[in-house]
Structures are given as structure tokens and as C-alpha cells.
Amino acid sequence: RRRAAAAGAHRPARTIDGVEVRVGANLAGLADATAAAAAGADLAGLVRTEFLFLDRGTAPDVDEQTEAYRALADALDGRRLTLRTLDVGGDKPLAYAPVPASDNPFLGVRGLRFSLLRPDLFAAQLTAIVRVAHETPVTVLFPMVTTVDELAAARAALDEAVRAEKRGTPPGLEVAAMVEVPSAALKAAALAPLVDEFSVGTNDLTQYTLAAARGDEGVAALGTPWDPGVLRLVGAVCRAAGPSTRVSVCGEFASEPGAAAALIGLGVRELSVAPALVPAVKLAVRETTTSEAARTAAEALNAPTAAKAQAFFSPSTQP
Ligand code: PEP
Ligand code: MG
């Protein structure tokens, strides 16, 4: 099986009935970019740019960020680079940019909420991203989007960064929103006109949908993306996105056994996973028939429990 996965790793993955599903890699540094290219990733579907900002005394300036993003692009050799703007706050505070204290940091100032409170840091990051987007295909990805107004403000900040560079709009520049907040999933039809792509972050979407904190062992059994409530939200995003907005999934769920078929069945056409898992996920795509997966997914959405939904796609996990 591993040999079969490795053999097809560098070709695009198509389902049995010929639907292409792009398989990207999630990166948190330069070593991951090298690993992603070696593993045959079609793109970098998520760059967690926090790696540049954490564990230091001051924020990286525009030049430092531009260099770092360019190094990722070089390692990816022309593959699309999805740069997520800073997702700090929550469990990842920055010493040089404190946020208001919160009893519930995951429900406080994090992700895009943080960037909109710090337009100076946001503009610097967007400027670096725009500079690299003039050299390679780039998607700007905004984390923790909750409302249409926030997403519009983020787009306005990006437009301003493009204008300030005075070189026109970079030809391959695309805009994407993370769907991690249940309200955003339910408002996908209103958010879709503002973006080229939705990237569903099932790690956070699961924690917020089930009110079960990530990494809290006491509620680990509750916090599963197989919960039919989470699956229904993913399905709702795919339906609302329509043909003009792609839907990808970049949470850990995308690489779970059975999940590729479930997500393809719900309408997802791009998956992004840890670099080492790209070949196995491409193999899972190649073993899926879209029409059959769609029928099975429709049944899984109506399952009463996570275990029963999962059993539709992973027969070894009988409830
Ligand atoms: C997610 O929430 O699923 C996600 C991909 O983002 P992160 O894990 O960085 O919060
Ligand atoms: Mg997240």
C-alpha cells in the first residue's frame, strides 16, 4: 500500500469517476515546505505563519517576512502558497502584542480579530504577502472569520496593501477565509462573494461546534469531527459555496481514515494535510467514487451519533 501511495504521489489525484481533488500540505516552517515538495503535495494549502512571530521580543518586519515567505515559495517550486495571516491569541499569546485578558482565550481576541485590532502588524504582514504574490501564486487566508464585516475589513486591508505597492494586483493572488466558527459556516452564502476559497478548519470548527476545548482530555471523546453536527456544517458550506468558491479542508480530520471519502462526498475538492501524509491521502482520493461518496455522506449526515456516521466510511470502527 505504501508503495502504491508513493508511486502516485507526484501526479494529481483523481477519484475513480475522474474528479480532481487537490491534496496540499500544511506548513509551519521551511523544513515542512521541502518535505511537502518531496512528498508530492499539489500546493501548500495552509502556512501557519505563527512560526515567524512566536518566541521573540519584537514582530518580524516586512523585509524579514518577505524573505521567509519567498524561501517557502522557492522550496515549493511554483506550487501555490496559501499564506494564512497571523492566528495568535487563543492559546498562542505574543509577549510584544498583548491582547485583553480573557477567561476564555479561545473565545477572545484571536486570529483575524487580533489583526483587525493591530492594523500596523496586519499591514506589514499583508505587504510582505503581496510582494511575494508578485513572484509566485499566492492565496491569502484569513483565520477565525466570524462575520461578513470582518471579512470585508480584511479584504479592504489587503486592497490597501496592494495599492501601496503600486504594481497592480498580483496575477495569481486569491483570497480565502477559514471556516472555523459555526456561525461562519451557516453564513457561507453571504461570505462566499468575498472569497475565492473556503478553507474549513475542522480542528477549531469541532471545538466550537461541540463546546469541547482542543487538547482537553476530559472532553476528547466529545470533540470528534465525525459528529453529525460538524459534518452538517461542512456540507452546508459546500452547498452555499456554489461553483465559484472552492471548498478545502485543512484540519487534522482530512487525513483520518475514511475522512477523504466523507469530505469528497460532502462536496470538498481540496484537502491539506501534514506533508508526510500527502501520498496516503492521494491514494484515498483515488479509491473514492464521488457519486457513491455523496450518497453515503447524505446518510452519514442523518446518523444519530459520531460513531454511526464514522462507520459509514470506516467500516472497521463499528459503533
Ligand atoms: C483548524 O482549526 O482546523 C486549523 C487548521 O487551524 P489551526 O489548527 O492552526 O488552528
Ligand atoms: Mg484553527
From TrEMBL:
Alphabetically ordered keywords of this record: Cytoplasm, Kinase, Magnesium, Metal-binding, Phosphotransferase system, Sugar transport, Transferase, Transport
Annotated function: Component of the dihydroxyacetone kinase complex, which is responsible for the phosphoenolpyruvate (PEP)-dependent phosphorylation of dihydroxyacetone. DhaM serves as the phosphoryl donor. Is phosphorylated by phosphoenolpyruvate in an EI- and HPr-dependent reaction, and a phosphorelay system on histidine residues finally leads to phosphoryl transfer to DhaL and dihydroxyacetone. General (non sugar-specific) component of the phosphoenolpyruvate-dependent sugar phosphotransferase system (sugar PTS). This major carbohydrate active-transport system catalyzes the phosphorylation of incoming sugar substrates concomitantly with their translocation across the cell membrane. The phosphoryl group from phosphoenolpyruvate (PEP) is transferred to the phosphoryl carrier protein HPr by enzyme I. Phospho-HPr then transfers it to the PTS EIIA domain.
Protein's cellular compartments: Cytoplasm
Gene (UniProt): ptsP
Oligomeric and partner information: Homodimer. The dihydroxyacetone kinase complex is composed of a homodimer of DhaM, a homodimer of DhaK and the subunit DhaL.
Name listed for the protein in its UniProt record: Phosphocarrier protein HPr
Cytoplasm found in the keyword field: yes
UniProt entry tagged with the keyword Kinase: yes
Main subcellular location: cytoplasm
Family, similarity comment: Belongs to the PEP-utilizing enzyme family.
